[in-house]
Amino acid sequence: MQIEKKITREMANRIFEVAYLVMLAMYTGFYFLNTTTFEMTWSTYFYSNMRIGLLLIIFARASLAEEYKLKEIAGCILVALVLLVAWEHNGFDELRDIVLLLVGAKDISYKKILKVYVGVVFVLLSYTMISALTGRIDNLIFRQDGRRARIAFGIGYPTDFSAYIFYMVLAVCCLRKEKIRYIEIGMIVLLGIFVYMFCDARLNTICLILVAGVMFYHKLRCSNAEKRGEEYEMNAIFSMLLALSATIFAFIMIGLSMLYSTDNKFLLLADRVLNNRLRLGKKGIDLYGFSIFGQQIPMIGNGGSTKQPKNYFFLDSSYLSASLRFGILAFGALLLILLVIAFRAREKKKWTLLWMVALMSLQCVVEHHMTDVSYCVMLYLFASDMTEVCRTKGTIKWFRRKKYAKDNALN
């Protein structure tokens, strides 16, 4: 008996959805490994083939779409156009890759995207740490005046290592939401203490403690509302401020950097608190200025080597780095992406996601990972499906039904 093989539109959509998630894992892994001390040798066409594969998946999913929402399509086209034009002018490949991963994630469950990210980063980070501690790769230890020894655990710099933990925790919290247990919140606190003791990463320590505090507070509020037989509702004004957090922090950081002066005691104090971010931002603005489409800015940082570089100049703040290097238009598009994600979360009452976007925006004040492909998983949620229905089980059942039908036919 011969089985007639038919692939419906729904089946094809599921197949290409899985294909996208595989490509997301590959991209995350590719960029992650490039931040480690592993001596990676990629084949000549590996990166370009990976990009072509993702493009084909995007076109296939677009052709299979049953309906097109004009508002969403227009938003994706606008963001993609601005970032790609900026990429053509300034040459930063991460802009192009963010566009591909962002557009490719359209209508895919945000939970699936976050699960893939957490899985890939957890496995690779664990393997990297073990390899560094057992001597298989370099474990860079930075010794700086007035600070304890800072261990990078196989990553290029200690703050980059601690940032992976921070972004992974953000993703986990978005998945766990109010169901997170108190012991898990305690583990987040322990992670904060860990990165402080071994990496001396003060900002990420503060951010991890803030995440733990926010999750504790949110769990309590949801629990109290449930006892009253109600659904927790965040204050409208406060949720609006959280949704606008990226834009607010961007204006504050860029404004303070432009106004920075050694004659201003308040700005000198703020600069010390921010570890010279304002001074370096002011220097970058004076030397290169803002441009429409961005520019290449040579930056000399501490990562990758324990030797103290001469003429140190690095734009750590994501807001200053993105605005000066990617250009005003691309920077505006990135802020728009974060605004859309935050307001979608606010509209759908996904308060945990809204909190995590706000905390990421705070972390970006001092660190530059907002557009690093192996960190910025939040950006890919721009056009993702934020409903609670996850079709993973349905996909598994479909494959099981096909296998069952095939086995019956053979019998």
Structural description of this entry:
Helix content is 65%, strand content 1%. It is mainly alpha-helical. The chain has three domains: 8-130, no CATH class; 140-233, no CATH class; 240-365, no CATH class. It has a two-stranded antiparallel ribbon. Strand 1 and strand 2 (150-151) form a beta hairpin. Helix 1 (9-33) packs antiparallel against helix 2 (46-64), helix 5 (110-133) packs antiparallel against helix 6 (158-176) and helix 14 (328-347) runs antiparallel to helix 15. The chain starts with 8 loop residues before the first helix and ends with a helix. Mean pLDDT is 89; it is low at 390-399.
Which characteristics define this entry?
16 helices; two-stranded antiparallel sheet; globular; about 65% helix; about 400 residues; 3 domains; mainly alpha; single chain
Number of strands: 2
Q: Please give the alpha-carbon distance between the first and last residues.
A: 10 Å
Largest sheet: 2 strands, antiparallel
- Give the overall average pLDDT: 89
Query: By helix and strand content, what is the structural category?
Result: mainly alpha
- Provide the helix percentage: 55-70%
How much beta, percentage-wise?
under 5%
Based on the structure, what is the oligomeric state of the protein chains? single chain
The whole-angstrom Rg is 23 Å
Total domains, how many? 3
Number of helices: 16
What would you call the shape? globular
Task: Give the ordered list of helices and strands.
Answer: HHHHHEEHHHHHHHHHHH
Strand order of the largest sheet: 1-2
Uncertain runs: 390-399
